[in-house]
Amino acid sequence: MSTWRGVPREIIPWYPTVIDELCNGCQKCFRMCPTKVYEWNEEKSVPIVRDPLKCIVGCSNCANACPTKAIMFPPIEILSSFERF
Q1: Which pLDDT band, with edges at 50, 70 and 90, does 85 fall under?
Q2: What is the three-class DSSP state of 4?
């Protein structure tokens, strides 16, 4: 079982959401994700979040690279509620 700072990864809601209507099909997110969170839907020419738990907690590089802002993440502040001291 994977953890983040001692917290089971399954309970941390950190993963991308793709807004298909905004996606231009550039594949930047799909190509750049080192953990292979995305699968490419050839029919619709959009990314699909295939394995959300593979998303690195706190990473939003794909959203930052998206030229049309089609990728959303929860507010980074939510992570503070999962930190254990």
Answers
A1: very low
A2: strand
